[in-house]
Task: inverse folding
């Protein structure tokens, strides 16, 4: 009833090809994005902005990048943490070497650097696939982290071995460094993620995305109809790494403030892969839902014992958290292997018919 | 430039030739480490062969088995009783996994099952620590961690025992797979699920058996690793060490797991000792992966993996 497209006619190719062909969808998404821009900086507390929403957006961007590679192009990668580290370290080096350059440009440039690194580590995908490839990408993860640990040039020879986000301004507002307010950081993060999500959505609807999906579904068939596997796979690796690199740079500049390689270890790779799978492989919306799930569930689990007045020792609580988290993952995979995005789609289908049964 | 080439291609070999005793010690250390990797890799291969599930939780199963064993021994159970009880626990675990995780997910894509085992990984980690405590425990199985000399070469008793155990385990598994009725059923399932099902092999039973066997292999690996470095969380990370072994040997080959383990173990030790200092050391973490990766470019299906004939 509330979700009817009756009377909405598509009279031009443009309206037929629109991202959101249904008016309700369009209005809802626009409202949601507008709310995301306006409400949190005004309403949310410092804690929520800094510790929940900003990491959520940064992870969502990384998940988006991995989703392009794994969900659309079908190449499983466990090197996300390594690629994010490349983004973070190159953003640090670039902003130190060129202090006058706009911080957004620094992010983009570090994304380009990461894309080049991703290209190199994508080469094995031309020969191997599936789990073999997943394990092969672990080589990227371990090698890159080792490299950043070993070569002091990457941290500008600082004795602590950490990289620290310098103070940078955007339109006269400080957006990184210790003086930046959580609100300003949040706005930068959501601005970037909105633009990149739009770009990703358009990429996957177009020629590039279709060739990725063709390779994913059946590589031999794809090659026969004229999709070049090498170019397509490498392009997927490059673009995915670009996204991950920007996310890595944001992770340090907007969220952590300072970091060492430990922040980018193998656990981060798994975390992002989780977001993609829980959210939904091959779905832009899924990347956001997955990131929200992975960021919010631990917070929820930490606070539940407090809320129901059940005091637990910290160690025990940590262990229960792990168990519940693991069980939830299995539960979600059993209930909906196609992820949260699919659940959302099913809900929409139901709403179209509601309140009539057919 | 010449110096660099010399340091990479000449000096290490000169070192090796100059001190053969040390080289032999390095090689033995590598073989011992490699066998330990093989033990973990074996668990992966068994499960992958029979159910094409890439079981990421194998590392945590090793940890869980070791934790259970140590916990039971701390409660005062003698070693044989504790071992039997641990075996029972692992078999019960196999039943539970089949019922709760595998059965509802049957016919799903591989990556979904893989993610489910990562969920299992989290669950077992939390469960094991909750049941048995999270602190580092010493596992004493009665083998001293000391060395003896054979013609001037140091050999560690514990590593020797581990090597012999691994060899015995592989022999037993080989006999089990080749000579028993259930072993034949396992091989049939590994070949083709549907065909096996249609000739009346109960798939569910086979899965329970395979996961139980993998659990028992995990116990052996857990005892060996635990005796060497204490039972602690880092034990579950050896799963990551077993992955290059797997790609080197092929996901579906038992001998591949053994040979791959040996190659990785020896290659890693040689690389660390002779080439490591060139780049500042600590290359053990990624060297195995790069080795395996370089190898994959030449033989994408691993040493003994099934050849996939496909031209892309």
Result:
């Amino acid at each position: 009833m509330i979700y009817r497209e009756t009377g909405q006619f598509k009279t031009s190719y443009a309206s037929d090809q629109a991202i959101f062909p249904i008016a309700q969808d369009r209005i809802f998404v626009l409202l949601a994005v507008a709310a995301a821009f306006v409400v949190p900086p005004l309403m949310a507390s410092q804690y929520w902005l800094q510790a929940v929403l900003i990491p959520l957006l940064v992870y969502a961007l990384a998940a988006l990048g991995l989703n392009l590679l794994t969900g659309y192009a079908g190449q499983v990668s466990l090197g996300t943490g390594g690629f994010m580290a490349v983004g973070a370290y190159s953003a640090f080096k670039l902003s130190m070497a060129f202090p006058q350059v706009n911080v957004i440009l620094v992010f983009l440039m570090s994304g380009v650097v990461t894309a080049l690194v991703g290209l190199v580590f994508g080469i094995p995908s031309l020969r191997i696939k599936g789990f073999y490839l997943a394990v092969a990408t672990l080589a990227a993860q371990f090698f890159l982290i080792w490299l950043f640990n070993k070569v002091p040039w990457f941290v500008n020879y600082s004795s602590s071995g950490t990289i620290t986000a310098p103070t940078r301004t955007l339109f006269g507002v400080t957006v990184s460094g210790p003086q930046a307010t959580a609100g300003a950081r949040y706005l930068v993060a959501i601005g970037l993620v909105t633009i990149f999500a739009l770009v990703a959505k358009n990429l996957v609807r177009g020629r590039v995305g279709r060739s990725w999906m063709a390779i994913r579904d059946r590589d031999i068939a794809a090659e026969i109809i004229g999709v070049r596997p090498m170019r397509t796979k490498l392009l997927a690796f490059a673009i995915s790494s670009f996204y991950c690199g920007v996310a890595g740079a944001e992770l340090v500049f907007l969220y952590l403030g300072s970091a060492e390689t430990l922040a980018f270890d193998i656990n981060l790779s798994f975390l992002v892969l989780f977001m993609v799978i829980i959210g939904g492989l091959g779905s832009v919306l899924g990347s956001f839902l997955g990131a929200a799930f992975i960021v919010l569930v631990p917070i929820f689990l930490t606070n539940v014992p407090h809320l129901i007045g059940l005091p637990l020792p910290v160690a025990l609580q940590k262990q229960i958290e792990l168990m519940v988290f693991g069980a939830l993952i299995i539960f979600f995979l059993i209930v909906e292997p196609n992820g949260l995005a699919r659940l959302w789609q099913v809900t929409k289908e139901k709403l179209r018919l509601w309140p009539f049964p057919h | 430039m010449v110096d660099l080439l010399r340091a990479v291609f000449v000096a290490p070999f000169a070192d090796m030739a100059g001190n053969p005793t040390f080289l032999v010690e390095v090689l033995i250390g590598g073989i011992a480490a490699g066998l330990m990797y093989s033990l973990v890799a074996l668990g992966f291969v068994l499960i992958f062969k029979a159910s094409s599930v890439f079981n990421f939780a194998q590392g945590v199963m090793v940890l869980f088995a070791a934790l259970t064993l140590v916990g039971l021994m701390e409660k005062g159970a003698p070693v044989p009783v504790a071992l039997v009880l641990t075996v029972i626990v692992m078999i019960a675990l196999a039943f539970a996994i089949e019922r709760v995780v595998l059965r509802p997910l049957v016919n799903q894509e591989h990556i979904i099952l893989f993610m489910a085992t990562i969920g299992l990984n989290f669950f077992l980690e939390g469960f094991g620590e909750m049941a048995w405590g999270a602190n580092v425990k010493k596992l004493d199985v009665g083998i001293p961690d000391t060395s003896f000399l054979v013609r001037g070469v140091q050999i560690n008793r514990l590593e020797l025992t581990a090597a012999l155990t691994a060899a015995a385990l592989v022999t037993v598994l080989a006999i089990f797979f080749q000579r028993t009725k259930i072993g034949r059923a396992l091989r049939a399932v590994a070949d083709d699920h549907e065909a096996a099902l249609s000739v009346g092999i109960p798939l569910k039973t086979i899965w329970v058996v395979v996961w139980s066997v993998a659990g028992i292999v995990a116990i052996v690996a857990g005892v060996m690793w635990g005796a060497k470095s204490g039972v602690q969380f880092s034990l579950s990370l050896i799963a990551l060490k077993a992955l290059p072994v797997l790609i080197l040997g092929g996901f579906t080959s038992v001998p591949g797991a053994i040979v791959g383990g040996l190659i990785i173990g020896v290659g890693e030790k040689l690389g660390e000792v002779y080439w490591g200092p060139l780049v500042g050391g600590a290359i053990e973490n990624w060297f195995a992966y790069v080795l395996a990766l370089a190898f994959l470019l030449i033989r994408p299906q691993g040493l003994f993996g099934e050849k996939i004939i496909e031209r892309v």
Observations:
- Chain B touches chain A through 49 residues (CB under 8 Å).
- The two ends of chain B are 39 Å apart (CA to CA).
- The domain at 2-175+202-298 of chain B is CATH 1.10.3470 (ABC transporter involved in vitamin B12 uptake, BtuC).
- The mean pLDDT of chain B is 78.
